[in-house]
Amino acid sequence: MALFRTDLEALIYIIIIGVGLYFTNWIISFIMDRIKRILPNNKNKIKFTFRLISSLAFLYFLIEGFPSFTTIPSEYSILITGAVSTAIAFATSEIFSNFICGILIWLIDPFDMGDIVDIMGHKGVIKSTSLTKITIETFDRIIVQISNSDVLSSPILNYTIKLKGKKNFFRFKRQIQFPQDIGHTRLDMDIYNDEIRKKEEIELRDFHNLVMEKDRSEIFSFTFSMRIPYKRFRIKVDKIEELCKEYKDIFDYSPKFHIFNFSNEISVKFRILTLDSDKLLKHKAEFANNLYKIILTNEV
Question: Which residue, among 162, 101, 97, 94, has the nearest Cα to 129 in the 3D structure?
């Protein structure tokens, strides 16, 4: 039995229901964006759940609302249903696939809003997610939209450090340090080993105190590599070290670097840690450009 008495009544009510569901989701999104105490990941899940419920509710009223559907002879209704189902399947196969993949991504939870990721060669910050796609802003300030089906079928590299037991400094230290940070590939570990280690320990404790003060549960990490000529290498490394110290206040923690390969030039990997992924979007390119100026200079 249909939910409404006539097709016209069904059409009017379905339009009203559709508009009502649309504005309900808009209001929920508006409220979620204004609430600061809820984490972005939880906000996204709440909005996703309401959109899913709204879509299923609208589909139910659309199928069960029209009384004319009940007066069609069974043999014709089967034929019509099959034809319509086939047409809908072809027309919405990609949409439905993205929709299902969106649900799986929500359940698996491989990334949160603001995380730094590498998906299909696009490395950047997750700016938004929806039932059908995600939006990434790359470090070249390009907005890239990737369908959920493509996301799920591609390797996902998440460079964000999810802190566990952050109150304990030594556990915090183990989570954010790379093995290279304490190994023999460091460029600044020479006769001043003990002094440098003590300074870095103090800086790390200050960073830990900042994380506790701001009550952050994640740290955003970004790495990139550059090649430095052998000529005046030590002098350039000293200048790079000074540049990294200048960016401590910008990134919350001074960038680190180490050697990872020797060839006709020396390959050096840089690593930036920050509490705000937007700082990487704003200042990473400028930092890299200043590094290039040091590497390419021929001054003594």
Answer: 101
Token output for 198: 């003590």
How would CATH label the architecture of 161-296?
Answer: 2-Layer Sandwich (3.30)
pLDDT tens string 176-221: 876 555 544 445 444 446 777 788 788 888 888 888 888 888 888 8
Comparison of pLDDT for 35 and 171, the residue scoring more: 171
Query: Where are the chain's structural domains?
Result: 7-108, 116-157, 161-296
Do the beta carbons of residue 159 and residue 183 sit within 8 Å?
no
Give 89-125 pLDDT, tens digit per residue: 554 556 667 777 877 887 778 888 888 899 998 988 9
* Straight-line distance from the first to the last Cα atom of the chain, in angstroms, rounded to the nearest whole number: 88
**How far is it, in rounded angstroms, from Cα 33 to Cα 167?**
29
Residue carrying the six token digits 């039932």: 131
What one-letter code names the amino acid at 233? Answer: F
Q: Specify the pairing of strand 160-162 against strand 256-262.
A: unpaired
Token pair for residue 119?
Answer: 């998906």
Tell me phi and psi for residue 103, to 5 degrees.
-65, -45
CATH classification number, 116-157, choose in 2.30.30.60, 3.90.1150.10, 2.60.40.10, 2.170.16.10: 2.30.30.60
Beta bridge partners of 272: 222
